[in-house]
Amino acid sequence: MSGTAPVLAAQGLVKRFFGNPVLNDVSIEIVPGRVHALLGENGAGKSTLVNLLSGVLAPDAGRLLVDRQPCARLTPALARRHGIAVVQQELSLAPHLSVVENVALGAVPTRHGLIDYGRLAVEVGRVLDRLGLDVALDQPVEELPLGKRQLVEIAKALYRQPRVLILDEPTSSLTAHEVQALFKVLAELRRQGTALVYISHRMNEVMHLCDWVTVLKDGTRTADRTMVGIDPPALVRLMVGREPGDLFPPFRSTARGELALEARGLTAPGIQGVDLVVRQGEVLGIGGLLGQGQEELLLALYGALDAQAERLATGGIDRPSRNPADAIGRGLAYVPADRKREAVLLPLSIRFNLTLPGLRRLARRGLRRFAQEAEVARELTTKLNVRGGGPERAVQLLSGGNQQKVALARWLPLSPNVLLLNDPTRGVDVDTKREIYLRLKGMAADGMAVILLSSDALELVHLCDRVLVFRDGRIAADLAHRQASEEAIVAASLGVARQEAA
Amino acid sequence: MRQVPSGAALHARLIWRRNRGQIGLFVLLALLLALYAFLHPGLLSWAGIARFTQNWFPVALVAIAQTLVMLMGGIDLAIGAMVGLGTVLAATLVGESALGAGLGITATVAIGVAAGGLVGTIVALFGLPAIIVTLASSFLIGGAALLVMPRPGGSMPGWLSEGLVGVHPTALLILIVILVAWRVLRATPLGLSIDAAGDNPAGAFRSGVNVALARIAAYAISGGLAAFAGVYVAAQTGAGDPLIGNPLALQSITAAVLGGVGFLGGQGTIRGAVAGSLLLAVLVNVMFFLGLPPVAQYVMQGLIIVAAMGIKRLRERAA
Fold this sequence. Notes:
heterodimer, A: 502 residues, Rossmann fold, 3 domains, 6-stranded mixed β-sheet, 22 strands, 33% helix, B: 0% strand
């Protein structure tokens, strides 16, 4: 296999977003007739690499070679012409159009300027049969279940007879039977000399299917080797082990005896039968791959999703929260990941944003008391060290990190009992991260229970008393602080049985 | 192994599938038409059909024009102004001879296509919201119409008016020609990309569809249709009137919404929009024959729009 020339290659790719390097000196060779696994944690740079290889993004340094010819500026259109096809996780289908129209969209056969429906029926039918996809050609895509839509997406890539086929989590919504059919097709494509790149978090699929593996960690390549003679735990070890530096405060538990929240058999859209307990002063981490039910857990606790539970006790009441207002009344507070859309009011002042949730408590006889509000705002900005101007400045003028501090601080006047944090440091600079960590530990020390959802395994390792790892809407592992290494969290996320160090 | 349908069979099935969710509308329309024919038996004659379709025709045209823009996720507030500009251009440019008339109509429609294409270009390339761009263009186009003709005037050749609005169903024929033309366009890659670009612009772009071109084409065709509606209105009134089209902007949106066209793009069909405009026209006539005052007609229209949207939402929720 090593004798075959790569159809697509990258040398020394560098890509930065707003100065932060997401890929650093990454090289990769995509070879015909080989299934190439691309592995890495959340945010390791896999998607960025795929976007560079398919021309969606342009690299800041390094070069791409197609058939050994340097390609100065790869665009999506040019990538298509070179036969590079990507099956993305987010679907690119037009829901109101039919299956045939979607599969052929952008590459419809024509005769005398009109769509050649006869050829379309034959050619698309052949691709669907190959995938074992039993749907009518004329069926609108919106009527199909998610798994079948995913297969239509794959059919769309196959229809173009690509030389390089990149699949990003293609099996995430497929049934076991559909996965089998897909694997048969992929094996056939490999035999026919298609170059395949396979991104998946399902380790057994990777072990079963792939010949070669490239592992990314923090934007750098930590392995590029054959799959022969490597086992899942070794792959996990290649994905973890980032240097935390002095980012995190030294760990000290402030957990007390009293329960702050207890849930048993919590079920909501996206989660199933979750049991959890948080104590006052405890920081409970929620980890796992993206979209395994972590966010749904927070929203269910916060009353923003319909939830059922055998027991959901907090604030002296045992029942699920009816809606966010009810949850706030019971002492819960939620800081969303998308602060700009769900938390702060961008054009309004820092003072107004900080006092909005507690406005009613600050008022007297239904009238606002501006002096008190200003006082509270001043206190909070000092306490959380919000930088970027006085309390009358609009929040949109602050940096992302300082906006996040406002989103966090505005709950403090209500002195919540349980704080639900949804990835609070996403897109935040390093210094602000450190401040948020300190504040978060400070609030726990004051007795608040903190539930911290994070896509960064290191945060969970260094900040949390306990870490729950989610997988397919259930808790896959419950790790105490001592056991919660980055490796353990990643292994549990991927469903890899870890070899216990003797 | 699947049975592979012939091209014609597949095409026919695709066309039929696009009726989904609209059968109720077509049934309601048939019932109302029957009621109308019952109340006003004069409808069932050449003259009756001719007169009815002539009243309905401009609204049908602007409903199609509006739908093309709404399929792109936009909305066109300038359609009324464009009709007004169409009438004054027609009343100025259309000559007495057959050649002069042909050239004048062609020039009017071409100006509509150009104006629509320009608006589409601004929307597609600068990513500005259609509602703002078309609000601005409604003033520009309305202003242009007033420049050409500050007050109603000009004239249309008598034979042309007689041909278009005499006692024969020319309007119905033209409408059928337009529907067939859309059917042909929809069977080309460009027509498909107009539908796809409205439905999922990002996905269509990633699939290799020229989304900007599809948008510009939709706005340009829309502008041409609105201008042609102006030609027809000028033939009806025998003169140009820069302000005559203004009520049509809102009527076109009403008809499109009744016809099942969604505000988010990608949802709806041209045939649905035509049915919506027909529903509107029949309803007004039926209420007139039932002796309801004009005020009641307005109230009724409002209620019907809300009811149509409500039923649609309930059905989406049930699905």
